[in-house]
């Protein structure tokens, strides 16, 4: 039986669509941990990136740290973190927390760098004009810079989401569920259909996320251009 027929047969088996090990359950687990990770990364990286872009303070250090974070292998991070998180929480410390920590570290750099770049690239004449008519720094950031920079900011979130979804499969090595469980169990049991079924599911989830963020980014680009024109007119 070749890979294609084995995979189709696996998807066609009703037993793979129900129960705690079924596709819907594993898919939900994967989406949940990816969403939680992305939210944590946003809370950490977005405010910092916006502040650096607005003040232009610590930009070189932040970019250097972000690039260093990208260079660290995710699996190595999980292995290093696991003993410490297990001591803190014996229940979830080995199964969940290493995956979350590693994915957060993976998601922070693109979010922070794009937030910084988006704010930094806003026309400085607009910013100075806003200051000239009495805008406070917070009003400039939230009312002028951020709306114009949203397409670039969303690009960082889009990149982070794809990386997180793809990397969440590694959690199966530490006992977590998600779609990575199909890959691990399939390889361990030499089941071609289950292994490639997991690959297909992860790919479909990544493509879905990519497509949704692409549509959002396209709308934000159009909105950002309109806001930039409006801001320029108001500043004159």
Q: Any overview of this molecule?
A:
This protein is mostly helical and 236 residues long. It has a single domain (3-235), classed as Orthogonal Bundle (MetI-like fold). Helix content is 80%, strand content 0%. α3 runs antiparallel to α5 (97-120), α5 (97-120) crosses α7 and α7 (137-167) packs antiparallel against α9 (192-235). 39% of the residues are buried. Residues 231-235 have low confidence and may be disordered.
Concise overview:
The protein is mostly helical.
Task: List its traits.
236 residues; 80% helix; MetI-like fold; 0% strand; disordered C terminus
Question: How are the elements arranged and paired?
Answer:
Elements lengths: L2 H10 L10 H33 L3 H13 L2 H15 L8 H24 L3 H9 L4 H31 L12 H9 L3 H44 L1
Helix pairs in contact: 1-9, 2-5, 2-7, 3-5, 4-5, 5-7, 6-7, 7-9, 8-9
């Amino acid at each position: 039986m070749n890979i294609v027929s084995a995979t189709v047969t696996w998807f066609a088996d009703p037993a793979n669509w129900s129960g705690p090990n079924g596709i819907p359950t594993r898919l939900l687990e994967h989406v949940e941990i990816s969403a939680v990770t992305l939210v944590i990364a946003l809370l950490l990286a977005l405010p910092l990136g916006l502040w650096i872009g607005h003040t232009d303070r610590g930009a070189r250090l932040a970019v250097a740290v972000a690039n260093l974070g990208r260079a660290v292998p995710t699996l190595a991070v999980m292995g290093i973190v696991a003993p410490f998180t297990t001591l803190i929480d014996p229940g979830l410390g080995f199964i969940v927390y290493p995956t979350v920590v590693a994915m957060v570290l993976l998601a922070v750099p693109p979010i922070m760098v794009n937030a910084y770049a988006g704010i930094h690239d806003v026309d400085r004449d607009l910013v100075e004009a806003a200051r000239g008519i009495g805008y406070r720094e917070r009003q400039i950031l939230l009312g002028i810079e951020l709306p114009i920079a949203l397409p670039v900011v969303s690009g960082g979130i889009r990149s982070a989401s794809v990386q997180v979804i793809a990397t969440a499969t590694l959690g199966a090595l530490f006992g977590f569920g998600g779609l990575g469980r199909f890959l691990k169990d399939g390889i361990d049991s030499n089941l071609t259909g289950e292994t490639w079924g997991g690959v297909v599911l992860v790919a479909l989830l990544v493509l879905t996320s990519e497509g949704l963020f692409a549509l959002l980014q396209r709308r934000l680009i159009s909105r950002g251009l309109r806001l930039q024109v409006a801001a320029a007119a108001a500043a004159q």
